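Quick illustration for those who missed Monday's session on complexes.
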Amino acid sequence: MLNEFAYCPRLGYLEWVQGEFADNDDTVEGRYHHRNVDRTQQRARPRGEGNDNEVPKIHERSVWLGAESLGLSTKIDLLEGEGRRVTPVDYKRGKRPHVPQGAYEPELVQLCAQGLLLRDHGYECDEGVLFFVGSRERVRVVFDDELVARTVQLAAGMRAVAAAGPIPPPLVDSPKCPRCSLVGICLPDELRYLTVGEGAAAPPRPLVPARDDALPLHVQHPGARIRKDGEVLQIVDDDKVIGEARLAETSQVVLFGAVHVTTPVVQELCQRGIPVCYLSSGGWFYGITHGMSHKNVELRRRQYAVAGDPARCLALARRFVQAKIANCRTLLRRNHPSPAEDLLSDLKGDIRRAGQADRLDVLLGVEGTAARRHFSAFAEMLHPDESEAATFDLESRNRRPPRDPVNALLSLAYAMLTREWTVVLFSVGFDPYLGFYHQPRYGRPALALDLMEEYRPLIADSLVLTVVNNGELRSEHFARAPGAVSLTAAGRRKFIEAYERRMSQEVTHPVFGYRISYRRVLEVQARLLARHLSDEISEYPSFTTR
Amino acid sequence: MRRVCLVSYDISDPRRWRQVYRTMRGFGEHLQLSVFSCDLTPAQRVTMIAALEEAIDRDDDQVLLIDLGPSQAQPIQQIEALGRPLSVRDRSPVVL
Ligand code: SF4
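Prediction with iron/sulfur cluster bound:
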């Protein structure tokens, strides 16, 4: 643990206090090389006491050691020695770096900490060995006074930071960040950009991956079963394989209606941190299964504290509503053939009023008014084919159940966005049920509803416009019952595909200027909220497009 | 960044061949009898290599990893196929 802290104090804090962890090739390879070493696990015990004739040889793998006095614990890959004199051996991936000390500081310090722990346990230990797997080289490291002093100093620093907080600030424009496994969680350049103010700092380097390594799997085929075949999920219907998804490339599994999963599949998904979402066949979000909760207890504490502070709740709520209205206005400007001037200026007024609202109920009123204005013009942004015009005729927003196709699409789009946000919030470590603007109500992910406000026009409304105006969805994709309209299975599948295309689409981030997919935008947004709650950034940056 | 890697293998024992085949299906697309095309992050590549090394016999089997370059450049399209056309689907969400 000391080597992370030596690499960057913030990294040490994120991993050891906030329980953040993310894999990159270094961590995966590290684990893989350690596996050979890990086969046997033992505790170190001074040996040979009371038996002078025989000096026992020590050769033990994966030895766990802890020491109260140092406030450290560590795992030693290999312990070699004779009698009471021992040498810890630490395995490192790759080749020996060509630096005068034989290795970089984090590695030296880590090894030296092991030596100090061994001393604490009654051994004699003056040096250690770094074994570089790539070049099969042993590098001898002498624990001289300087290295020992540095190690003790770092250990003390780490204990102080871990005990008292606050989180150490990110490194400035450091070449370490691009190689850091937590760069997408830490957001070093983004934070700096937001804290010193635009213009004063260089725009963030695009260190957050623009695209997604893993993507969702949706199954809405009635009666389908999901099973595991090696590294692959197979979706079968009547023993016929109708589709597959690789586990390594799956981010979440979304099940509509009567789709079956086996317990081994659920266990595998939980282990890999892939959530399973359960929806009614119509898309109503029922629940979610995920592995053991994220360890970031500190974040949830902050969330509860802020949610209990009416002034901070109101400030956040104002930002959510303002951004939502601003994005509605942009949608109108872009998609309406001739947006009425007073409608646009009315919405501008709503944004101002939302910013001045001094109570939540006032804010709710402003939001409602703006939503009615936006919706009144929504029909005019729809231009389906002549022949389909009757299908997409729209009078009012109606929900449960939706009474016309456009409302059915809007409801499904909002439900998908709610599910998306709930998953993102869980994965970042939030409690999705406690919001700042939306009040907690049974079974309602209030924080997800808060955060999705500004994305309703950007993702859901614009998606509905696209599928209608492109003729992707037509009257045959809807089933009509008295007083209710729903999508057919084929229609729903088309709509989900269009939704996922929208989420994969790359946009220019309005604050940071780099290109990034909508899926990742949501994650960055949730992490920015976390940084705001912990007071690292004073103002919550909303996502508004121009 | 993601890179495309062609993985081909020569496995002398049918049981191990089956094991390697099952492993590889989790990482890429099956192109030919013992050839997969994989679009991998560096971390996925390391995981795949670890899984393969577990499955093969170091003395009798052989796996070749042929790096074709960054995924954005769609290097798979540079491959010329005689006979049946080569089709590799884009990574995209699965909707069924
Ligand atoms: S991204 Fe940079 S600042 Fe953040 S933890 Fe990693 S090394 Fe430290």
